[in-house]
Amino acid sequence: MPLLQLKKTSIIRIRISDKKYSLIIRLFAVDVTALQTATIVFVNRNTVNRYFSYFRCQIIRAALKERRQEKITNEVEIDESYFGPRRQRGKRGRGAGNKIVVLGLRKRNGKVFAEIVPDASRRELLPIIRQTVKSGSDIYTDGWRSYDALAVYGYNHKKVNHQKNEFAREDIHINGVESFWSWTKRRLAKFNGVPPSVFAMHLLESEWRFNHRNDIL
């Protein structure tokens, strides 16, 4: 779904020139914030926000379609991460304070899928993994105990022990999915905080942008 091919829609009942619309969508494609875009294009920020919301809805539709059409196979890296105020430390397991817990699954050198979960317990993580990753695949994780049952379900489970400062052992690592966490947190930081009410939308947008970061948007 090339972003630059999105046309103005009657759903957004705002009078704006084609030139300004084209500039708005180009700035959105390169991930400029709504405030910066409003300043550059000389339009009201609320106008930009309405267009950006429309664009994000199209991205979410595309991302969800990709999820339905693809099941991850072969080498898959899995990890969970915590999003929220830096001053509050997250904790693994049954909740993470005021942090939002996200499970990430990334095919080696391929696409990533991110899912918000209530906590990092086995009960929450394993059903998502089994639904997303084909049985028999090689799965790489850290030493978190919730992943210990993966072998029972037919996966070739390989792990590194971060608690013992082991981050890679030959081809056993989770550097790929961790690069997605770093990329996403850097991206979201420029918004100066994302409210929990819209975090899921921004997370799915980050997933889609990461998966298509080398494409022409």
TrEMBL record:
<keyword id="KW-1133">Transmembrane helix</keyword>
<dbReference type="InterPro" id="IPR053164">
    <property type="entry name" value="IS1016-like_transposase"/>
</dbReference>
<keyword id="KW-0472">Membrane</keyword>
<feature type="domain" description="ISXO2-like transposase">
    <location>
        <begin position="71"/>
        <end position="211"/>
    </location>
</feature>
<dbReference type="InterPro" id="IPR024445">
    <property type="entry name" value="Tnp_ISXO2-like"/>
</dbReference>
<dbReference type="Pfam" id="PF12762">
    <property type="entry name" value="DDE_Tnp_IS1595"/>
</dbReference>
<keyword id="KW-0812">Transmembrane</keyword>
<feature type="transmembrane region" description="Helical">
    <location>
        <begin position="21"/>
        <end position="43"/>
    </location>
</feature>
<protein>
    <submittedName>
        <fullName>IS1595 family transposase</fullName>
    </submittedName>
</protein>
